[in-house]
């Protein structure tokens, strides 16, 4: 009986706690749908849940789906995207995001459409050089996490991005240069390319800054394209089964051209800027939490640990060991 009781206590301690936001995970895919033959330029469809943090940013009065750019959920009420999506934008506070779907014209069941509350563009963004091409969208109401809606993992500067693999891009952008946008999410695997190679004389000739990431292929053929702007470049963690949001689709010469890969804003270089804009860090502070949490509770934010080998809440483990200590004391007294 005592062994059975101990086992029940252990199960109770390790059973995940369910609360309003416990179903939110960081960088975890519900479905793995990648096909080695597919291309984002040229088109192959992603399956529902394959990239649950990606959102479509839409202009309601634009024809079709209204899709303008992509973005990534980094908390229940914030989307990370590219600044250039909002240059000369007309009333962006009247725009909206669509989450939890790969289809835009006939959204998947459970798709969420939420209006934008405000747009925060990096104060030093340059439309000429595309430096600091990053922006945040605060939503009017929080998204609800589920199988098809999750958060992206946002790294700080301690993450060693070079060498991460596999990496992927996704979006509803054009499948060929100058073509119309598809209505089903496209995805593709890409390789990270060293900045020195990207800046070489036969590539981008020094146009890439230290706050950029290059990704694609030397021979071209697979790339992000117009309409994918603001969407995610993600790479799998070296040890865990989850993905880091390492880049924001920013710019490139054409789509899928040889030695002209996609150029992405490096998210880890703007980690503290992001936290300051979200009100999670004072501008005067020089240190920040090790990564953005999977959930934020207002008015006081809470931070959860990075996904690892022990996903159970610390308070439940503490409760278990307290109960175990009490039980051992009871056993000791009964044997005396």
Automatic annotation (TrEMBL):
One of its GO terms (molecular function) is serine-type endopeptidase activity. It catalyses: Preferential cleavage: Arg-|-Xaa, Lys-|-Xaa. PROSITE patterns: TRYPSIN_DOM, TRYPSIN_HIS, TRYPSIN_SER. Residues 1-20 form the signal peptide. Keywords: Disulfide bond, Hydrolase, Protease, Serine protease, Signal. Coiled coil: none annotated. This is Acrosin. It holds the Pfam family Trypsin. InterPro entries: Peptidase_S1_PA, Peptidase_S1_PA_chymotrypsin, Peptidase_S1A, Trypsin_dom, TRYPSIN_HIS, TRYPSIN_SER. One of its GO terms (biological process) is acrosome reaction. It comes from the Eukaryota. Its EC number is 3.4.21.10. Residues 40-279 form the Peptidase S1 domain.
């Amino acid at each position: 009986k005592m062994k059975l009781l101990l086992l029940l206590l252990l199960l109770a301690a390790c059973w995940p706690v369910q609360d309003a936001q416990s179903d939110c995970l960081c960088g975890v895919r519900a479905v793995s749908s990648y096909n080695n033959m597919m291309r984002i330029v040229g088109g192959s469809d992603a399956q529902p849940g394959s990239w649950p943090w990606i959102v479509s940013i839409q202009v309601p009065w634009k024809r079709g789906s209204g899709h303008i750019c992509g973005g990534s959920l980094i908390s229940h009420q914030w989307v990370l995207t590219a600044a250039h999506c909002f240059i000369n934008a007309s009333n962006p506070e009247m725009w909206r995001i669509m989450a939890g779907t790969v289809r835009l014209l006939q959204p998947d069941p459970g798709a969420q459409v939420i209006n934008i509350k405000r747009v925060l563009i990096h104060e030093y963004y340059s439309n000429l050089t595309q430096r600091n091409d990053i922006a945040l969208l605060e939503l009017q109401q929080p998204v609800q996490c589920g199988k098809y809606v999750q958060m992206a993992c946002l790294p700080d500067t301690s993450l060693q991005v070079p060498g991460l693999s596999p990496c992927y891009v996704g979006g509803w952008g054009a499948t060929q240069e100058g073509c119309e946008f598809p209505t089903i999410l496209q995805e593709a695997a890409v390789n990270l390319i060293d900045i020195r190679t990207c800046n070489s004389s036969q590539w981008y000739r020094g146009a890439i800054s230290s706050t950029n990431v290059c990704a694609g292929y030397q021979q071209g053929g697979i790339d992000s394209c117009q309409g994918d702007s603001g969407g995610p470049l993600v790479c799998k963690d070296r040890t865990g089964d989850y993905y880091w949001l390492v880049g924001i689709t920013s710019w490139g010469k054409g789509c899928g051209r040889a030695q002209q890969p996609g150029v992405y804003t490096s998210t880890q270089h703007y980690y503290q800027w992001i936290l300051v804009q979200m009100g999670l860090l004072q501008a005067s502070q020089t240190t920040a939490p090790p990564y953005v949490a999977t959930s934020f509770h207002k008015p006081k934010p809470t931070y959860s640990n990075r996904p690892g080998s022990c996903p159970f809440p610390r308070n439940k483990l503490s409760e278990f060991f307290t109960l175990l200590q009490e039980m051992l004391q009871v056993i000791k007294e009964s044997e005396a």
